[in-house]
From TrEMBL, chain A:
GO terms for biological process: regulation of translation. The chain crosses the membrane at residues 90-111. The keyword Transcription applies. It comes from Actinomadura rayongensis. Its main location: membrane. PANTHER family: ANTI-SIGMA-K FACTOR RSKA. This is Regulator of SigK.
Automatic annotation (TrEMBL), chain B:
The keyword Lyase does not apply. It holds the Pfam family Sigma70_r2. One of its GO terms (biological process) is DNA-templated transcription initiation. GO terms for molecular function: DNA binding; sigma factor activity. Residues 133-186 form the RNA polymerase sigma factor 70 region 4 type domain. It comes from the Bacteria. This is Sigma-70 family RNA polymerase sigma factor. Residues 37-103 form the RNA polymerase sigma-70 region domain. Belongs to the sigma-70 factor family. ECF subfamily.
C-alpha cells in the first residue's frame, strides 16, 4: 500500500472522505493493522468532539424513537465469518500486512531481552487492552524501508505495543531488534521477526522512545545495525 | 480504544453504563433501550444538529440514528471501542451523509460560512456535560490554527478534506496531516485533563 492510503486515517475518522475514497479506505482497513488501530483511536477522540456538542433532544423525540423501535425488528449479531474478518482489521493475516512480532527463538544473546517482551499471543485483545489504558498514547513513525509504524505506550501499564508494516523478513542470520531509548544507553527489549502480530514490550521504565534495528541473530549489546524504525514520546 | 469520560460517564456495569445498556438492548430489552435513550439522545441530537444545522432535519436524522442503535445493537463490538463512541460515530456518519445529499447541495456555500461560528452554541445545564465541553474547548484552543480549522470544518462543518483544503487555501497533504495530528494532540490533551 502506498503512503497516500495510510495517510487517510485522520480524514476517515472525521468522515471527511468522499464516497469512493471512503470505500477504498475501508477495504484498506481490512488488511492494515496500523491504520485500523489508528482509526479506532482517532474516532474515539472525534466522538468526544461530538459529545461536547450535546444539547437536550426535543421531548417529543423520545416517544417517537421508542415507538418506532418497538415495531422494528432487530438485526442478528454478525456471523462468525464477518467477525473474523473484522478481527483481521486489528490483527491482519500473515500475508496481508507484514507486521513484526517478537521472535520466540532461543538466540542466547537475546534471551534476557526477550524475557521482557511478550512471546505469547499478541492479539487484538492485547491491542484493545493497551488502548484502554487511561494514559495510553500513540506515536507514529516511518519505517526506513518504506512502510509505517505505530507504538501505543502506557506508563501506567509500563508497556508498549509496536506495530510495523511493509517490512520483509530479516536477512538470513539476522533479526529485528527492539531497543528502549531515552534513559541512558539503549536497552535491548526483545527481537521481532516478520509475522502477523503486533509486539508487546513490558518494562518500559523511564524510556522515552523505541527503536528497531537489524542485528545478528545471536545478540548485540547495543544497536549497531541499520535503523529500521524509531518513535519517541515525551514524559 | 480508550473509554473517555464522555464516552462512559457512568460507572462500568452500572445501570447508567451505555455499554451495559447496549448489551441488554441487543437482547431486545426495551426498558434498557429507553434508559440508553436518556443517556445518549442529548449527545446524538446535539451533534447531528451541529452538523445539519436545521432543527427539523436534525430531529429526523437523530431519530434514524437512535432507531438504528436499537436495530443493530447486537452488532456493536466492545473490542472496537466504547459504546457511546460507537453511537456517536453512527450519528456523525448519518449527519454528514445527510448534509452531502443532493438536497443539501444548494446550502453548501452558506454552510461554509456558518461553519465559522462558535463550536459550542448551546449548553445544557448538566454539570458533567459542561465540564466535558469546557475541556474539549480548552483542548481545541491548544491546537494550531490550521489543525483546529481542519478538524472542526470537517467534523462540525461536515466538509470533506478536499473542501477543507479549498476553504483554507492549502494543500490536500497538509489538510490530511493536520487532521490526523490535530486529533492526536486533542486526544493527548483530553486524556491529560480527565
Ligand atoms: Zn495502512
Amino acid at each position: 500500500m502506498t503512503d497516500a492510503v495510510h495517510g487517510l486515517a485522520g480524514p476517515y475518522a472525521l468522515d471527511a472522505l468522499g464516497p469512493d475514497e471512503r470505500r477504498d479506505f475501508e477495504r484498506h482497513l481490512d488488511g492494515c493493522a496500523v491504520c485500523a488501530a489508528e482509526v479506532g483511536e482517532l474516532a474515539a477522540t472525534a466522538a468526544r468532539l461530538g459529545a461536547a456538542a450535546a444539547r437536550p433532544a426535543p421531548p417529543a423525540l423520545r416517544d417517537r424513537v421508542l415507538a418506532e423501535a418497538a415495531r422494528t425488528r432487530q438485526a442478528p449479531p454478525r456471523l462468525p465469518a464477518a467477525r473474523a474478518r473484522r478481527l483481521r482489521r486489528i490483527v491482519p493475516a500473515l500475508a496481508a500486512a507484514a507486521c513484526l512480532v517478537l521472535a520466540t527463538g532461543l538466540g542466547v544473546g537475546w534471551y534476557q531481552a526477550d524475557r521482557r517482551a511478550e512471546h505469547a499471543e499478541a492479539s487484538s485483545h492485547m491491542m484493545a487492552d493497551m488502548m484502554s489504558a487511561p494514559d495510553a498514547r500513540t506515536v507514529a513513525g516511518s519505517v526506513t524501508t518504506g512502510g509505517h509504524g505505530m507504538v501505543v505506550v502506557s506508563r501506567d501499564r509500563d508497556a508498549a505495543v509496536v506495530m510495523l508494516s511493509g517490512l520483509d523478513k530479516a536477512p538470513a542470520g539476522r533479526t529485528y531488534a527492539v531497543w528502549l531509548m531515552g534513559d541512558g544507553a539503549p536497552r535491548p527489549a526483545g527481537r521481532m521477526r516478520v509475522a502477523d502480530k503486533p509486539a508487546m514490550i513490558h518494562g518500559l521504565g523511564r524510556a522515552t522512545g523505541i527503536g528497531v534495528t537489524v542485528e545478528p541473530m545471536d545478540g548485540s549489546a547495543e544497536p549497531a545495525g541499520p535503523e529500521i524504525f524509531t518513535a519517541h514520546w515525551t514524559g | 480504544m480508550r473509554p473517555s469520560p464522555a464516552a462512559s460517564p457512568r460507572r462500568p456495569g452500572g445501570a447508567g453504563d451505555p455499554a451495559a445498556l447496549l448489551a441488554r438492548t441487543a437482547r431486545g430489552d426495551e426498558d434498557a433501550f429507553a434508559q440508553l435513550y436518556d443517556l445518549v439522545s442529548g449527545p446524538v441530537y446535539g451533534l447531528v444538529l451541529r452538523v445539519v444545522r436545521d432543527p427539523a432535519q436534525a430531529e429526523e436524522v437523530a431519530q434514524e440514528v437512535l432507531v438504528e442503535v436499537w436495530r443493530t445493537a447486537a452488532r456493536y463490538d466492545a473490542e472496537r471501542g466504547g459504546a457511546l463512541a460507537w453511537i456517536m460515530t453512527l450519528a456523525h456518519r448519518r449527519a454528514v451523509d445527510r448534509v452531502r445529499s443532493a438536497q443539501a447541495a444548494a446550502d453548501r456555500e452558506e454552510r461554509a460560512h456558518r461553519a465559522d461560528g462558535p463550536a459550542f452554541d448551546a449548553v445544557s445545564e448538566e454539570v458533567e456535560g459542561r465540564l466535558e465541553r469546557e475541556r474539549v474547548r480548552r483542548c481545541l484552543d491548544g491546537l494550531t490554527e490550521i489543525q483546529r480549522e481542519s478538524v472542526t470544518l470537517a467534523y462540525y462543518g461536515g466538509h470533506t478534506y478536499r473542501e477543507v483544503a479549498e476553504l483554507l487555501g492549502t494543500s490536500l497533504g497538509t489538510v490530511k496531516t493536520r487532521m490526523r495530528d490535530g486529533l492526536i494532540r486533542l486526544r493527548d490533551c483530553l486524556g491529560a485533563g480527565s
